[in-house]
Amino acid sequence: MIVDVVIRLSSFIIYVFLLNFFFLDGSIDLKIQLKTIVFVCILMIIIALNTSLVPESVEPVINIIVTVGLIVTIAKHHNIPAKEAIFLTIIFLAIDFICETLSVSLFESLLSPQFGPTSFLFKIMTTGITMIVEILLIIGAKLIFFKNKSYYQSLTIPALLTLSSIPIISVMILFSFLLSKLNINIQNNYFELFVVLGILYMNICILYLYNNLTSHLRKINQITLQNNALKAERKYITEIKKTQKTIQSIRHDLKNRFLVILGLLDQNDIDSAKEYLNKTLDSVSTHQVMYSEDPVLNYILNEKSKIAKRNHTQFNIKVFVSHNIEIENDIFAILIGNLIDNSLEAVARLSAGKRRSISLVIKQLHKNLLIDISNYYDPKEVITRKSRQYDGLGTNNVKTIVNDYHGIYKQWTEGATYHVDIALFNVARD
């Protein structure tokens, strides 16, 4: 009996140090409060009395209560928020039962025929294995998941209930397993009911997590769209600034150019004046094609046309839109830019000698906007197309914008031509 008490108290003291190591974040005073020491001593007395005096059927329940009290006490000492403390208490209980179940299973598989659960060797071996595994798990959890973690924001109640579902079910199942191994009778009917209700609760929590995860992913995708829009807007503004500087420089020099022309005309040197005037006109020309009244759209189409020309790709553009389109410039930039980028990438992957061509039509019909883009591609790429879709955000961004505007997105192939059609409704003023 004395040996049992010593074993229990030794494992209890080790557990106290483990909990302090786990909750320690380097930002609090290492000095332990007197009331904490007193409460831990009281728990040690309860452990000793429980091991020596309490009936075997009640002992596991008291051990659980003492463990919960110890975890809550250490967590409170380290100023862990209440909801975090509750969640971590459930996690630690699950770890305890996992370690004890593992130790019992290992012992039974190796020494079960010779020694029963009441033998001295059984208690020494199972307690030792439990503590070793528990030390490894808690230190591993601290170093991998909770390294330098400070609990500045507590869990919400729905999150707490959801995250605790699996550990709670694990504790129930493992606790019943240990009771059966220690030959302690349990009410199977009640236990089965608890397990069924627990599994139901766990699946409801998984659905809750799924809903929150998809919502979180949607927010991430929206943030990605906003970042891409910001980059497009900044690029456009940068280009405008460059253009303005160029115009200012040309205006500054224009007066002198006019004086040169006047001088040539005074000398009746008409041919030299014409030649000089043509050079001046070439220098002030921006070589920009005006596809529409939207300067952002014009800039994007001109930039993409330059890229296509550098890649020896024929790029046919037709735009029939008015100035009353109500799609935001940055959103429009992402939509058109990503569509063209996808086509440019597909054409760039064509082998030498293959025709490289892209066709883009942007057409407004009353309040609706139709976008059609097609390009040549290699049909053999069907095998690798899925991986590229998952790796890139271009197509996902396009589909997200179309869905936000309650539009229609359609893609298909005809031979070696890839088509994408988009219809956006009610996106123009009367």
UniProtKB/TrEMBL annotation:
Q: Name one Pfam family in it.
A: SPOB_a
Q: Per UniProt, which keywords does this protein have? A: Kinase, Membrane, Phosphoprotein, Transferase, Transmembrane, Transmembrane helix
Q: Which residues form the Sensor histidine kinase NatK-like C-terminal domain?
A: 332-410
- Transmembrane region(s): 6-24, 36-54, 60-78, 85-107, 119-145, 157-178, 190-210
| Chain ranges of the SpoOB alpha-helical domain | 233-286
Q: Which Gene3D superfamilies did the record assign?
A: Histidine kinase-like ATPase, C-terminal domain (3.30.565.10)
Q: Which SUPFAM superfamilies match?
A: Sporulation response regulatory protein Spo0B
What's a single GO MF annotation on this record? kinase activity
The molecule here is called Sensor histidine kinase
What organism is listed for this UniProt entry? Lentilactobacillus fungorum
